[in-house]
Amino acid sequence: MSLVSFAKGHATENDFIIVRDRHNMAPFSPQIVQLICDRHRGVGSDGIVRAVKADLMPEWDGDPSLWFMDYWNPDGTIAEMCGNGLRVFARYLLDEDLVAKPKFQIATRAGLRTVWEKPGGVLRTSMGPAVIGQSTWVTVSGRRFDAISVNVGNPHAVVMLPDDVDLTKLDLHEAPGFDVGLFPNGVNTEFVHPAGGHHEVVRFFERGAGETRSCGTGAVAVAAVASQLCDGAWTIDVPGGRLTVDFDDDGAYLTGPAVIVARGDLVLPE
């Protein structure tokens, strides 16, 4: 048996586990990730981040002094990054005095991300460019919906729901169907109901996690699609709270809360 120390936090009720492994001595395996994230056998979360110094990660060729966000989905697959997970990771680094306040950078598989600490527990993060792709489709309960592909460092399919569909009654217990040729590694899917003005209401189905209470990169993808019709900052209401997305020439920015709620040790089998 072995002990793994962890912290757990959430960002608009999208919850994550953070494990510090500064010297890259205990890389994750899919089986360990699945166990830790399991809500009955482990701690339970929508994803897990291993905090490693960037110079020890072969995926990173930038500043070696940064902390690297080694992000995994709860099914044991590796992801490029996660917007809400980024904020929880940033909150952890701040709470542990591992980064300088109020502005610092984090290394991710999707590139360099900058974080600003704001009053009231709110964090603003750079998200890189949100690249609008081609039209595509997804299916839910046998019904096909038009969608727009968006790359936010990870893949998304954004569905602007027609007027005859009630967002609250959409059945997301099973994964939506999608174009595997366009998304060979899976896709995060957003279902959007316009609330008027620069305001959208969204539900998410994340690859490797299922329906979640929030998705940061998904909120950015939704705002990117909406911004094709109208510029400006966007309010994105999600089941777990509220996020804000805005853009400049360098890309998208995501703002929202993040808090660490627990710390402890998890007993793992050998």
Structure at a glance:
By secondary structure, this protein is mainly beta. Helix content is 12%, strand content 46%.
Q: Report the C-alpha radius of gyration, rounded.
A: 18 Å
Continuous helix count: 3
Mean pLDDT: 96
**How many angstroms does the end-to-end distance come to?**
5 Å
Q: What would you give as the CATH superfamily of the largest domain? A: Diaminopimelate Epimerase, Chain A, domain 1
Unreliable stretches: none
| Coarse structural class | mainly beta
Strand content: over 45%
Helix content: 10-25%
Could you describe the 3D structure shown?
The chain has helices at 30-37, 83-95, 216-226, and strands at 2-11, 14-20, 48-53, 67-72, 103-108, 111-117, 122-128, 131-140, 143-151, 155-160, 177-178, 188-194, 199-206, 210-212, 234-238, 241-248, 251-257, 259-268. With 270 residues, it is mainly beta. It folds into two domains: 2-128 and 257-265, Roll (Diaminopimelate Epimerase, Chain A, domain 1), CATH 3.10.310; 131-249, Roll (Diaminopimelate Epimerase, Chain A, domain 1), CATH 3.10.310. Strand 6 (111-117) and strand 7 (122-128) form a beta hairpin. The longest helix is centred in the first third of the chain and has 13 residues, at 83-95. It is globular and about 55 Å long.
